[in-house]
Amino acid sequence: MKIYKNHIAAKIAGIIGDDKDRIKSLLEFPPSEAMGDLAFPCFTLSKGMRKSPNIIAGELKDKIEKDDMIERTEAAGPYVNFFVNKRHLISTVIDQISDEGYDYGKSDEGSGKTVIIEYSSPNIAKPFGIGHLRSTVIGASLKNIYEHLGYNVVSINHLGDWGTQFGKLIYAYKTWGDETKLNDDPIKHLYELYVQIHQEEEKDKELVELTRREFKKLEEGNFENIELWRKFSDLSRKEFQKIYEMLGVDFDSDTGESFYIDKIAGIERNLKERNLLKESRDATIIDLEKYELPSILIRKSDDTSLYATRDLAAAVYRKKEYNFDKMVYVVGVAQSLYFRQLFKALKLMGNVWADDCYHVSFGWVKLGEEMMSTRRGNIVFLEDVLTRTIEKARKIVEDNSPDLPDPDSVANAVGIGAVIFADLSCRRDTDIAFDWERMLDFRGNSGPYIQYSHARLCSVIRKYGKELKKEYNTDLLLLPEEYSLAKMLSLYPDVIKKAAEEFDSFYISNFLLEICGIFNTYYQKYRSSDDRILSSNNDLADSRLALANCTRIILHSGLKLLGISAPEMM
Asked: Residue ranges of the alpha helices (H) in 27-151?
């Protein structure tokens, strides 16, 4: 709808002598098609023109002449409703998408700008649990979205590879570790040791001090501890990579917390020079009380560092290294207060760019009874969930389409896509509940439903049996569903931009569901009549196939932005 917004805004601006861009920003989408395609609210003009919004709307309506793009206007209370020329819209949308293909919706708004997105960030030597999924898929999708808008995106996996937990783990391995078990199943053995040391600390409080000493030795560069830490880290990274490959996720950098250890001194000098450091119970803090925030702990009483110290160092390093325009942290809602503290501390250090840092929070993952059965101890391993989902998808795919040439590939795409979409189909700030039956429902609001719609469109195009024509008569597309579909497709660039502005892929997933709803209604309603897509009228069939192909392109593109594959056969 971009060209119609520009056209209408220019007309209104010319009549009232106002700024076109300001007018464009005020244009709205009416709640129903019966009320028009775009609406202009006249409230903001009332004071300057000294008239009621209703009177202004009526006068504007009379002054706006219809043309090739505007079919008619109506005044409805304080609004001027615009009905665009249906034939013009359908023709414009099909031409543009056919010409641009998967580049449709791209823009140069991000040209010359850099966005850093930190996401996933699991802890070394711990299982990649289901709780890490949301950060991983939200961040990966945001990366795709910002790249689509022309930004230079730097994706960072800020691994939790430093901290007091390594003191615990090193002590546990030295005491109970088994090298054979470690090499055979590193995550399992390290997790068992981690659980064991916590249990033993409950019985013997002296162990807490012993594990702290091991971490202090690590920070001081003790050779044995450094070698164990490096081994745990390397083995964990290999295990994590298996998960990332299953999800189709990658990163530009996986520098974890340990990378910033030698940069902490500079941060502490800055804080000291600005008199921001304060001693409290033998520890060093940044007192944020006057900003109505809790203090940030910078160093413990034993002089070891904390993750806040390392996060400050990471932010300053990234600004110097990448000169970002925006830095996004995709981390759960439980850390909201912490990020307010972190950003305030960065600002107090003299970093005006702290205002360009954003915490993209998300809700909790709730697990159903069947999902809970995948628990190992008190955590649900993500690899187990993904593997089991693929197995369930394989059975459904085989039952529905026993003759598929590559059922394994389709099952993998459907299973992984179902998990990702279940996460991204809700607003990120809401909690999500995993339900395998709902996730894998080919007829419901699910990833497989969108994938199946895409595969159906591919099938229709294959049955057409000819190369799609570059010239077609869109005046033949007279059905209401054809206009509704074309109009929805025209909104795709706006939806992508909205998803970027709100840091929320929900807008794209919801948009794809709407597209599928319109197309499948269209397909089912007319499949047994003369109005079916593959009409016996060749000219009509050519035009309908052009619209169908545009729909396929948008579904494929949207799924890709979400990080989901789009099989051509299901």
From this structure: 46-49, 53-63, 86-100, 133-148
List % helix, strand, coil for the chain (3-state, nearest 5): 60, 10, 30
pLDDT of 58 above 60: yes
How far apart (Å, rounded) are the C-alpha atoms in residues 362 and 360? 7
Tell which residue, 217, 175, 182, has the closest CA to residue 196: 175
CA–CA distance from 67 to each of 8, 82, 83, 196, 415 (Å)?
11, 12, 11, 76, 49
Domain residues of the chain, as ranges? Answer: 2-84, 163-247
d(CA 100, CA 80): 32
User: In Å, what is the CA distance from 321 to each residue of 125, 259, 310, 346?
Assistant: 28, 14, 16, 16
pLDDT at 481: 92
* pTM, rounded to two decimals: 0.91
Cα distances (angstroms) measured from residue 299 to each of 215, 413, 545: 13, 46, 65
Closest residue by Cα to residue 394 from 409, 405, 373, 374: 409
Strands 379-380, 375-376: pairing is antiparallel
Contact present, 455 and 447 (Cβ < 8 Å):
no
Domain made up of 2-84: CATH architecture: 2-Layer Sandwich (3.30)
* pLDDT, position 307: 87
Each residue of 296-321: pLDDT tens digit?
999 887 777 788 999 999 999 999 99
Q: What CA–CA distance (Å, rounded) separates 387 from 190?
A: 22
